Amino acid sequence: MMKRYDMIVVGAGPAGLSAAIEAAKKGMHVVVYDENAKPGGQLFKQIHKFFGSKEHKAKIRGFHIGEELLAEAAELGVEVVLNAIVIGIFPEKEVTVKVEDHVIHVKGDTILIATGASENMVTFPGWTLPGVIGAGAAQTMMNLHGTLPGKRVLMLGSGNVGLVVSFQLMQAGCEVVAVADAASRVGGYGVHAAKVARCGVPFYLSHTIISADGEDCVTGVTIGEVDKNWQIIPGTEKHFDVDTICLAVGLSPMSKLCDMAGCAMEDNPAKAGFVPTVNEYGETSVPGIYAAGDVSGIEEASSAMIEGRIAGIAAAARLGFISEETCKEEAAKQEAALEGLRQGMFAPGMRGKQITETEEGVEISQNLLKHGFVAEEEIERFPGVTHSAGVHPVIECTQNIPCNPCQDACPKHCIRIGSNITALPSIDPEKKCTGCGMCVASCSGQAIFLVNEDCGDGTAEVTLPYEFLPLPQKGDKGVALNRKGEKVCAAEVVHVRSAKAFDHTNLLTMKVPKEYAMKARFFREEETA
């Protein structure tokens, strides 16, 4: 007899697991199938801290979120089947699954499709050489398998994936020679770009790859500037000796199962491709079949988790495990949380729009958009960049991003964001900073510094977030780098703090000449300077 479940979930990523948990909480018998050997989807590759608020699991690293979801699913009795490829979804919600070396048939009263997305590729002479890989593949090699994808890497793509993976490549010990992008503006969060730039990585916007060099593998790459018609401008070629080219040129929803199941589909550029049409609960045109996460439109993992929860709640209502009234109440709470993530400059509705000012009316840093860092003459206009006697926070958050952990992290309430999660942080002049560093450690964008502009002996101290190994020690001498990654002065480590509450973000305090207090933003040891 064919086995039957209240809900079949395809994909054990953030959306799928979140839906399974919500459904199981309501008493549903749930199975999750995933083609991989490990559950968690992209979460276990995400070693950075998430944005958002507490309800979005902000300042928690992705792999920790994955561990939490798996533990909760197991406690609720969710059945997770790995190495299980869903071959097809047929009428009457019959699902065919290849598990290991045999095929099984199961039926679900409801189905959630949470198959995620695949990486896009671009073609150029040499693109099939070993050493040309997707940024997600590089992330898998590093963060799941502990293998370096290469030693010298060029990143193509300045969206969040390209920026985050560039930083993680450096954390793993690779040298990122440049970030290039055919677009004229940095596509991802400015704080992600800034932390890459201050490590000395140059940005080449309006540039794309002309060709890759090598016979048996990549040995180099040539990029060139493009004009408004996306054609290479002669004479702008730049060559880099690299062994790896990472492509972070977008994602496409893996929606074939939705199409096979008979769901109404649309080609929606705003959602990055061919996606199922869904209602406010994530239900497709086929009653009882839901879609959540990247399969229904590319967004962040935080959004995928909420979409999954909404679908799980709706499925429970469809089968009578909860009332329609309860469904509406619970879904409304999740919708509010989702709406919070869909605010600000990077909201889905803002894609393609040229934004010149923040919500507060502050002029956007054009240098950040073109070169990956806020210029010295621009930084002072942002509300988090202030001057004060003694130790005080300097918040170089310059875009309206849905994120507010710093406001909650400060025990003295020195940092103000308010109820609008996308507001730029500001400093309360009436409150006294104790220098505890919780704001520095909590910032998902690594954009907060503690600065003592005048120590009284001609020096200043700058405390910065540091997530590289080996960890410098007190007394180590080196150089301070500015926002562009240029050496600006000599620096000495005076303190390194690590604490469980910091969650592996170490606080490195360096002493620099006081005239560099508002310029020095990264430390590099002498032997690698």
TrEMBL record:
Q: Give the keywords, sorted.
A: Oxidoreductase
Q: Where is the 4Fe-4S ferredoxin-type domain?
A: 391-420, 423-453
User: A Pfam family name for this chain?
Assistant: Pyr_redox_2
Source organism superkingdom: Bacteria
List, alphabetically, the InterPro entries matched: 4Fe4S_Fe-S-bd, FAD/NAD-bd_sf, FAD/NAD-binding_dom, Metab_Enz_Cyan_OpOx_G3PDH
Q: Please list the GO terms describing molecular function.
A: oxidoreductase activity
**The protein's name:** Pyridine nucleotide-disulfide oxidoreductase
